[in-house]
Amino acid sequence: MTPRLFAIALLPIVLTACSTVQNLPLIPGGDREDVVETSNSNIALHGWRIVGDDILVARVPSNGCTQKSDLTVDVRERGGEFRVTFGRSREDYCRAIVRDGVEIPFGFEELGARPGATMIVTNPILD
Questions:
Q1: Which of the four, 18, 42, 100, 109, has the lowest number of CB atoms within 10 Å?
Q2: What is the chain's Cα-based Rg?
Q3: Mean pLDDT within 85-98
Q4: pTM of the predicted model as reported, rounded to 2 decimal places
């Protein structure tokens, strides 16, 4: 196969890859219209949940390298409730897009709350 025929045969594959990347959510330059306004101190999450009565699990967007140490946590107590806001201290520039994010657990004790306390996560939730 000549180089010219090889290039022509490869062209549809390359163009398909380019169009796929533009439709991925949260990718710079993507064409998603319902992007949530966030900042490094208030990132959008895939969700969160309480396990038992003393563990808060946050499902954080990840490109494959997000770790607990990459996140910041702001906890404020108000009227017996604890309001938790997650942010990023370091961006995740890896290339393995993890579609549903990664789950990162936080013990109530490390958040400054007693077991069974009411926790409310104030971050926006991604669809």
A1: 18
A2: 20
A3: 89
A4: 0.66
